[in-house]
Amino acid sequence: MKRTQLYLDDDLWNGLHARARQEGTTISELVRVAARERYLGSLDARKRAMQAVVGIRKDRKDLADTEAYVRWLRRGTRLKRLAGA
To answer: Does pTM top 0.90 for this prediction?
Structure first.
C-alpha cells in the first residue's frame, strides 16, 4: 500500500468525518473505497466481467484443434538438447 496526502475542503472533510464515525471506519478507508469504485469499478462488477469472459470462445467452429496446435508449437527438441548438455 502506498501513502499519499490529500487536501480536502472543510465541507468535504466534515462530511467524511461524520460518515466515518457513523460507519465505524476511517476517512482513509472511505476515500479508498470511493476511489476504487469510481476508477476500478466495484469488486462484484469486475468479478461478473471476468466470469462473462470464461469460455467465450469454446463453441467457435472456425478455430482449428487447439490441442493439436499447442502440441505443434511444443514439437521442438529443446528439452532433449538441454537434458544432454
So the answer is: no
